[in-house]
Amino acid sequence: MRNLSWFNKAMFFFNIVLAVLTFVAYVLPFLAPKLFPILSVLTLILPLFLIMNGLFFVYWGIQFKKQLFLSGLVLLMGITFINKFYKFSATNIPRVESDFVVMSYNVRLFNLFKWLNDDQVPNEILTFINEQNPDILCIQEYSSSAKIDLKIYPYEYVFMQGDKIKTGQAIFSKYPIINNGNIIFPNSNNNAIFADIKKGKDIIRVYNMHLQSIKISPDVNEISENIDGINQEKSQMVIKRISKAFKKQQQQAEIIMNHKNKCEYPIIICGDMNNSAFSYVYRSIKGSLKDSFEEAGDGFGPTYSFKYYPARIDYIFVDPSMKVKSYESFPEFINSDHFPIIARLSME
Q: Strands 267-272 and 202-210: what pairing?
């Protein structure tokens, strides 16, 4: 510190603060949100912490300063988190006949309330599904009002709730569904469903979930600015809302965990988690399952239209007995606030 200029001393002070916050964020996925609901908000901006630590590492490295070891250590300890945020190379194993494709897509009620000024959204979504031709299709925020014809799927399970506007989750399959059911979350309009699907000699349980929304604007500035306290009143309101949603998500994740632990079949969990891959909820639901993006994705793999920020809050988790042979998200397909994701799988 003695050999640092006053500017570098200030920079190193901010570097230390950033390192502490990053270490706290590393620990939070192992702590239930109900214990530290406000701190859990840090998991949403952990990728920004990683990027800033990387910039500090470069900053000190250019000057050949030993202070680079602090950010270097932070990045080294967070290497598994980096892999959840960005993949440097994709996997695309050649297709064989026994492979099957799973798609997950939050369709936002097929644009029922005209969020997009395009009357063709339902037809465009249908065309996209037909082109991708997944064997199993999981849809969140499904609505029958669009009356789209998914006749390529002889089997389906749809569960919807609501008085005036009915919405829910749906599973469509080219393989027979031999059992199905729903999982109701207390004090919430969200839910999960499941279907036991017979593929050849195998039976696979597919869950389709939609967890509690944190209800924030799709703009990273709302989180970062309000957490930084630029608008104190709004900051408290946003953080309180996110904290409350995280506690509900924890309860919902535990319900899904208890349900899946009783299942004797290989499991696939699809859906909109409304939370990042750095959260307690993600770690709880994933458990020993494989994250398809981590296994075969590349780049940031964004699944939600979040301004300036590649948010990944939709997932396809698969049983350890399955191999993820390819994975893809479609951020260029703008017909919802979410992007469709697809994984090609095989039984090992």
A: parallel
Farthest-apart Cα atoms in the chain, separation: 73
Measure the CA–CA gap between 162 and 164, rounded to whole angstroms: 6
CA dist list (Å): 321 to 34, 130, 318, 348? 33, 28, 8, 6
75-108 pLDDT, tens digit each: 999 888 888 888 888 889 999 999 999 999 999 9
Tokens found for residue 342: 């697809």
100-142 per-position pLDDT tens digit: 999 999 999 999 888 898 889 999 999 999 999 999 999 999 9
Judged by DSSP in three states, 54 sits in helix
Q: Are 93 and 335 in contact (CB under 8 A)?
A: no
Check residue 312 and report its DSSP letter: -
Count of CB atoms within 10 A of residue 275's CB? 28
Extended strands (E) in the chain: 100-106, 136-142, 155-161, 167-173, 177-184, 191-199, 202-210, 267-272, 290-291, 314-318, 322-329, 341-347
Residue 244 burial (10 A CB sphere; 0-12, 13-18, 19+): middle
Q: Which two tokens stand for residue 128?
A: 């996209």
141: left (phi over 0), alpha (psi -120 to 50) or beta: left
What angle, 0 to 180 degrees and rounded to 10, lies between the N-to-C axes of helices 6-27 and 46-62? Answer: 150
Question: Can you tell me the distance from the alpha carbon of 273 to that of 283, in angstroms, rounded to the nearest whole number?
Answer: 11
- Rounded to whole angstroms, the Cα distance separating 256 from 330 reads 27
